[in-house]
Write a structure and sequence with these properties.
By secondary structure, the protein is of the alpha/beta class. A hairpin with a 4-residue loop joins β8 (100-101) and β9 (106-107). 51% of the residues are buried.
Length: 749
């Protein structure tokens, strides 16, 4: 269908190559500042646009005046050219010409200025200028390749909109390769990556902006930025806790959805990526003309200096362009059919993500985009690993999830990527998308089976302890295949998505009204327990129980075999007041409240977390590199893992099926199967953990010889202040308080 009537066509004029542009090179893709063979400095631009008829490079000055240059060189579907004199800081975009035929998936529209998929920095935001609609502010209609308000709904996305989008979109920025230091000198060469082994890792999920927005020790001008996270006051807390890696919610350049803008909200979490090479400009304190690249690098450097790795939560499964009614910002206008999975009629999109579109990772150029991006963040930005949002969508071949898919195969053989930490969110929203335990041996996975089991145990929803035993000991039922290890399981109880830990013991019903979606958003299945009263209360008994439950959950997490993941603020009782889907709450609902660390009610919780992390790091029996066998590993030794009833007897098969809420777990430090780097046997203390989820106290008989001659109590979640090393006799009963955990060190004879 032709364009809509009475619109100004701005970009269908004949193209002529300017005299000053040179052929350049098809590699690397994107904009790269360099010096040519004749000594002339400039920038090489290269864009893959497979089915396009023509491509214009558009440069913008500070007054937003646009200069267009036709890229006439075409090599292997890559349009390229070298422009002398174009230096770092130059802003640019592309206009791509081709057919407009939505029914066949062709959505080229040269009126739309497109963001370079390989742009390493972005200046500005989508919809900087907003227009008024019936319901308030909205993204400008110019952002859309089709006429957004076309009256015939059956053709809502088929009539081309020829209005220029350039005034309403951000521009890519040419970035030099010397942005590491403030004086232009690269400080990256002597960076030391912590390279923490998986078994020794403790992850800490945080939001770059939300972590420091309320931090009193971070200067106000740095709060909410990469520089703020790198500030000593922010780093001090991470070091004090003892975490080994931060897992940053998305920091790729992202856009805000129209439905949020209309409600006066913003996409806070950032799972709406549009630039896979660019650090999100909104988190930069130093500027957005390329300065954000150096600021991000300095943040990584500061974290590395503190012994902390940086893992990025990446969203390669979909982009911010949404479905067929979404805006045309980048890939859709470059080659819609080449970048996205289309449905049978090609006008619509295959949506395995719930976000309107799915990247077509089977396509070689899409696979190249993703792997180039991953390598860039490792080699040039210094990051140590990735958590892949909805990773099952990336593992789909034609339709079904395939663990031999091109994406997983490429990652497995890539000499850079196979050496970094790779974490899968092992599901998507399509048929067959739930793949927990199915990813290849190179990968670790978010283990939601662990989350659900531990929540259910402590809220009293489990009839027996069979599943709990698997989760505490590394989930061998899920991961003991193909040479995988216990650290394939990333154990977590909360994440950014869902209740905070405090809300998990305070609310049974979500309270998401502030999101403007009628409380329909967010999961209904929270597996939470409010301890008898919904919401905050002054009832001391309820409050005491909630604090005990928090200690139970955190202690269970940090004593479990696998890789524990904490969420920023949970260690100090952060609350979102019952909002279990705060993706659009860029305000105090989501920001970490640092005043809690000074509150006598909440300060001990952070101390317990630090104590447990330190205990974990000091004892290899708590961070095993191999699954338990349940048998001795030396002559005359004990089983490496033993389970006990409350009577102090070893669990039988029948005991696992018996209704009850008490379980003893004995970890033998003298029977560890692994050896150290010198080949010597690893010897450690032995520990007994007693987990009791019933309301009433009960006696638990401590196992006698050969398990121990006596015991020392190290942790009691029934207390706010933890014990030192209280002695207890082996073979004697000890009272376990209602809903509590006891951790003992076994003293040998």
């Amino acid at each position: 269908m032709s364009s809509a009537p009475e619109q100004e066509a701005v970009a269908d004029e004949p193209l002529a190559p300017p005299a000053d542009i040179r052929p350049g090179s098809p590699t690397p893709l994107g904009a790269r500042y360099r010096t040519g063979p004749d000594g002339v400095a400039g920038t090489n631009f290269a864009l893959w646009a497979g089915g396009a008829e023509a491509v214009e490079l558009c440069l913008f000055d500070d007054a937003e005046r646009e200069t267009r240059h036709a890229l006439t060189e075409l090599t292997h579907e890559i349009w390229h050219g070298f422009l002398p004199g174009v230096r770092p800081g130059q802003r640019y975009g592309f206009r791509v010409h081709g057919r407009w035929d939505p029914w066949s998936g062709a959505r080229w529209n040269p009126a739309k200025l497109l963001l370079d998929p390989y742009a390493r920095a972005v200046d500005g935001d989508f919809g900087t200028r907003t227009e008024e609609s019936g319901s308030g502010a909205a993204l400008p209609a110019q952002l859309y390749g089709h006429v957004r308000d076309w009256p015939q709904q059956q053709a809502a996305d088929t009539v081309r909109d020829d209005r220029d989008s350039a005034p309403y979109v951000p521009k890519g920025v040419v970035v030099g390769d010397d942005t590491g230091g403030e004086d232009g000198v690269d400080e990256w060469r002597d960076d030391r990556r912590p390279k923490t082994p998986w078994p020794d890792s403790v992850l800490y999920e945080l939001h770059v902006r939300g972590f420091t927005m309320r931090h009193p020790g971070v200067p106000e001008r740095l709060r909410g930025t990469y520089a703020g996270l790198a500030h000593p006051a922010a780093l001090e807390h991470l070091v004090r806790l003892g975490v080994t890696a931060v897992e940053l919610l998305p920091v790729h350049q992202f856009a805000h959805e129209d439905h949020l803008v209309r409600r006066g909200l913003r996409n806070y979490w950032g799972y709406n990526s549009i630039g896979y090479f660019a650090p999100h400009a909104g988190y930069a304190a130093t500027g957005t003309r390329g300065q954000q690249v150096g600021e991000f690098k300095r943040m990584v450097r500061a974290l590395h200096d503190a012994g902390i790795e940086v893992i990025l939560d990446v969203v390669y499964n979909h982009t911010a362009e949404a479905g067929e009614l979404g805006p045309t910002l980048s890939l859709r206008g470059i080659d819609n059919r080449g970048y996205y999975r289309l449905a049978g009629d090609a006008r619509r999109y295959a949506d395995y993500t719930g976000c309107g579109n799915t990247l077509h990772v089977v396509q070689p150029h899409v696979l190249r985009l993703l792997t180039d991006s991953l390598r860039y963040w490792v080699t040039e930005m210094g990051v140590d690993g990735f958590r892949f949002d909805l990773a099952a969508a990336l593992a789909r071949s034609l339709h079904d999830v395939d663990m031999l898919s091109p994406f997983l195969a490429v990652i497995a053989q890539d000499p850079v990527l196979r050496r970094v930490k790779l974490i899968a969110e092992p599901w998507d929203v399509g048929n067959g998308g739930y793949q927990v335990g199915a990813f290849p041996p190179l990968w670790t996975e978010w283990n939601d089976r662990y989350r659900d089991t531990v929540r259910d145990f402590w809220r009293g929803a489990q009839h027996d302890v069979r599943d709990l035993g698997y989760r505490l000991s590394g989930s061998s039922d899920l991961y003991a295949w193909g040479g995988r290890r216990p650290y394939a399981s990333v154990n977590f109880i909360t994440a950014h998505d869902g209740f905070t830990l405090r809300d998990l013991v305070t609310y049974e019903h979500k309270r998401n009204a502030d999101n403007g979606e009628g409380n329909r958003d967010g999961t209904h299945d929270n597996r939470s327990w409010n301890c008898g009263t919904e919401g905050e209360t002054d009832d001391r008994a309820v409050t005491a129980l909630r604090h005990r439950q928090l200690r139970n959950l955190l202690t269970t997490l940090l004593l479990s075999t696998g890789v524990p993941m904490l969420v920023a603020g949970d260690e100090m009782g952060r609350t979102q007041h019952g909002n279990n889907n705060a993706y659009c709450q860029d305000n105090e609902t989501s920001w970490v409240d640092w005043s809690l660390l000074e509150d006598p009610e909440w300060r001990p919780l952070a101390g317990l977390v630090a104590r447990l992390v330190a205990l974990r790091r000091a004892h290899p029996v708590l961070r095993r590199r191999a699954f338990f066998s349940g048998r001795p590993h030396r002559q005359g030794g004990l089983r490496d893992l033993a389970w006990f009833t409350a009577e102090g007897t070893e669990m039988t098969e029948r005991d696992w099926y018996t209704p009850g809420a008490t379980l003893g777990m004995y970890l033998s430090g003298n029977d560890i199967s692994q050896r150290d780097a010198r080949g010597l046997r690893i010897v450690d203390d032995s520990f007994l953990a007693v987990l009791h989820a019933a309301d009433s106290p009960r006696p638990f008989t401590l196992p006698g010889p050969p398990w121990a001659q006596s015991y020392e109590l190290l942790v009691d979640t029934g207390r706010e202040e933890q014990p030192g090393a209280e002695p207890y006799a082996a073979g004697a009963p000890v009272t376990v308080g209602g809903r509590s955990v006891l951790l003992f060190r076994a003293v040998p004879g």
